[in-house]
User: Fold this.
Amino acid sequence: MKGAAAWWRRAGWFLIAAAAWTAFVWVNRLVNLAGDDRSATFIAVHVVLAMVSLGFAVPMAIIGWRLARRGP
Assistant:
């Protein structure tokens, strides 16, 4: 049973890392977008994409944190 619990903990840390990477990429993109001279449509589409991606990253991090702390 120890092997299975360790696997779930590693999977949890992977989910946390994936959520952190997603947040880093999209926050960085939004900061860069603020300084760009782009059309309003382009900016609106990318802001919506960022919000959706960050909306998925939050539960992914929560699930990852729970798995990393306790296992399945």
Remarks:
- The chain has one domain: 2-70.
